[in-house]
Amino acid sequence: MTVTPIRADAGLRPPGRDGGLRQTFRSKYLLRLLVRRELRARYKGSLLGLGWSYVRPAVHFAVYYYVIGVFLGLDQLIEHFPVYLFSGMVLINLFTETLHSATRSVTGNAALVRKVFLPRELFPTASALVSLVHFLPGLTILLGAAVATGWRPSPEGLAAAALGFAIIAVLGLGLGLLCAAVNVFFRDLEQVVDILMIVITWSAPMIYPWTHVREHAPGWVLDVYLANPLVSAVSLFQRAFWFPGTRGDFAFPPDLYARAGISLAASALVFAAGHAAFARMQKRFAQEL
Length: 289
What we know:
Layout: H1 20-26, H2 28-42, H3 52-71, H4 74-77, H5 81-103, H6 110-115, H7 122-148, H8 155-185, H9 189-202, H10 211-216, H11 219-226, H12 229-241, H13 256-281, H14 285-288
Helix pairs in contact: 2-7, 3-5, 3-7, 5-7, 5-8, 5-9, 5-12, 8-12, 8-13, 12-13
């Protein structure tokens, strides 16, 4: 009796062979489920629900505006200071929330990681999308305030806004992937990220003009400051939404668009490094969790 050998089905693949971000975005249904799950968990039992996405930035803005703008007098130095402040705030809030939530995304879904096979990148990606959902109400408020001060859309302004947003989105997700992976092995990273939130808020010209750094810091500090991608991103958003409603005499950082291009390239490198580190370390996630 002749036994016919069983041939491997060419259509079958080992689990996770083509995972990563490519498979993450192919799994759109799972991604939507995770985004909805995170939003529902965050606002469970809440009367306002997503309305808190409007309340939170409004209160945050009011505190900074009255303390920095009114009490310390920056409202008199910077034309339309509320729009200037909020232009940077919505972008910085997007970055900090992405980094903060992505860092905890894998450990926060430990039960799923241990029991179900699915692309692990789904978790930080879903956290980044939730941050984007919270970004949209702030952007809506910013557009309304900008229109009230004379802003009108222009190709250059929209391009500047798109470039600033791209820097933040790519850099935030790249660092989020890296921190999410490292946090599985070293939980102290959560505390480090919490501390970094304070530093990040003051590391970009959101509350103050960049010229304060030029006037009060040594030259090498200014060079390091301007090399920060967040500085370029915030300046581009201010160029897009705040500057058109002013007299037009504000001087932005030199070579803003060239620096922004370099910042986007650096953000892409951070993203590639974060993705590579995540892909390498995720093999031990289930074991560590």
